[in-house]
Amino acid sequence: MKKKQNILAGGVFGVLCVLAGLFSCASSPARQAFLPLADGWYTYNFERTLKGIQDEYEFSSATGMSMIQEITLKQNGTVTYCENGALFDPVLSILLSVADDGKISSRDNPSVSGSVSETGDFYWSGTLELHGRLNGIFIKGVLAFLPREERAGSEYDGLYHMRDTGTGRRQLVRVADGLYTWRYLDDEGGGEEGFEPWPTLIRPDGSFNFDMEITTALEMGALGRSDYSTAFFSDGKITAGKSISVREYAKTSGMGRTAADEAPHIYSGGLARQGEYPNEAAPDDAGKKIPAAVRSSSANRDWSQYPDWYLRPPQSGSLLYAAGEKTFADKTTALAMAEAAAAADIAMYRRMRVEKTSTAAAGGQGLSANTIVRSESSQKLSYKVVKSFYNENTQTAFVLVEAAP
To answer: Which residues constitute the domain of residue 390?
Structure first.
């Protein structure tokens, strides 16, 4: 169980949010056996926590106080693709490998590990550099096979344009193979350059919906803790080859948004005429792009610079093992942050385990489940560093830690 994490750029058909991972249930007709994964499209609903490992380490080093910096993204309505056991995370653009027994790894990121069950429940984690900062990523969710008959037919295919009736912002929407992708025209949405929207399912009747919630938790020692979240919801309807309409709105429990921000946005429009918009303005065809990304895996990447115990951590029924890495010119700092990444992996694994039993425990103690999770998972983590290595050539540190389950 080691890991590597990254980014999130996201938004709800009109709001672009950066840095965020969701947990929910998806329904789909059951196959005879879920594993090994069949080739095809899947719904990919998830909850992802992005932990600022490097920011936490540097704050603690500078102030002597502990710090918690986490951004959690919950997302429903996303679709992804699997072929020959290669599964694409469309939000993070990470290619996962799912073995026949459900074990998750990544050919491109050796820190990734996890598993998916016969019911489609999955968990995986890793580490990832984002803008030069080391982060831990922890994802749990539900994967469900998506038969062709559960997606809109080819009569809905085409390029649609629509406008926000209030703000005037414009979007182009690509519908292909029962999948919906979008892009603002002329960067009117204020999104960051290079943002690629993930595909959303369109049902056979032309309806679709999407929701996401971003929660930020920031705790800085004795200075206190703040938690705030914003949820986005979007639902719409397409009339095949004719029109499109979308209603989206936001709800927040924290700061930074006004009542005007939470007012519903209504988009409406129709099918674009041939040649009305340049090809570069149109969203990509997810039905072609994502399968192409799955097939372009860097399976032949050279991992000779990595210790064997990092690529294949020990497994034990009585101990937990996790490995972390960090590339940094200063050896001491690199080793410290790699250790922090490994420790965060074990801490998150324990938190997930606590969450499974917290609801029942809360009922018996008169406490909320969140209170129990926070109390038990925030206890000081006890672990031992069993191996460490600093590669002078690549200036990369690797650390392996072990702890009691």
So the answer is: 306-405
